[in-house]
Amino acid sequence: xxxxxxxxxxxxxxxxxxxxxxxxxxxxxAELARRTLPGAGQVSITLVRDGTAYTAAHTGPDxxxxxxxxxxxxxxxxxxxxxxxxxxxxxxxxxxxxxNGWPRYAAEAGMGSVLSVGLPIQETVAGALNIYxxxxxVFDGEAVALAQxxxxxxxxxxxxxxxxxxxxxxxxxxxxxxxxxxxxxxxxGIIMGERRCSADEAFAILTRVSQDSNRKxxxxxxxxxxxxxxxxGA
Length: 234
Hints:
Shape: elongated
Structural class: alpha+beta
Radius of gyration: 26 Å
Mean pLDDT: 84
CATH superfamily of the largest domain: GAF domain
Number of strands: 5
CATH architecture of the largest domain: 2-Layer Sandwich
CATH topology of the largest domain: Beta-Lactamase
Strand content: 5-15%
Largest sheet: 5 strands, antiparallel
Number of domains: 2
Helix content: 55-70%
CATH class of the largest domain: Alpha Beta
Number of helices: 8
């Protein structure tokens, strides 16, 4: 078990963003936390986007179930940690009455200790690393400090993955937009040649067919280009 924070950085640095997506990075971070943090029985990662919280990665069913119970209650250590970017400790779930009784629910699930550490990822995305331990009091001062160090390194990895994922998605959208524009221009050229009309009139024809057939302009254009390329009688 790694107790040196630099080991976290080395492990996280081995994640190759071009070989996995954001969800894959989240799973790797959660699994690494479970393997390396003292007292960790199960681990999950909560993300909050546009006010909606969800579990983006988890290492076991109990972690997922306990997270989702917090979302149902709109209260719990993972939500508090995500909202405040702070560390929230529940040393003994059986004797804790916070968050509308959620700790008792965790105790009944066999998790006596909970540690949630705020996970800053990106301005529009908040998060928390949630560490569930079976015995009460399993997270001592050293364990808390190590979890906080892990989160500092993990936040960098996740921020990079989020940026990479956003950039790749933007590039895909740009490519699709350029392809759509190209096929629409081809279709306009075909209509202009057949109808002896202007570019604006050709686009108006495409738009009218799109509306009448309840299809996207790009799909109408693609069908026209394909039909023309096949030739008469094809």
